[in-house]
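Subject: sequence -> structure tokens, single chain

Hey, anyone have a minute? Need the predicted structure for the following. Not urgent.
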Amino acid sequence: MEIRNPSDYYEKVQEKFPDLTLAEIKRVVDFGLKSFYRHNLIGGDVLLKSRDITVYSGKMFASNLVFYHY
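Reply:
Had a minute. Here:
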């Protein structure tokens, strides 16, 4: 597995959002990663969902019904 840094994504984001400056992109990406880390640190569940992929981090359940009620 390759270790990535937030700076690896700045140029990719800037290609999709050319109106944003590099400083603005850095603030957004860093804030998102820090928020993800802090939520996991305190035991929170994080669900990231897009059209192509879904990422869930937190307590996993074998039953969808139990997960729904949780």
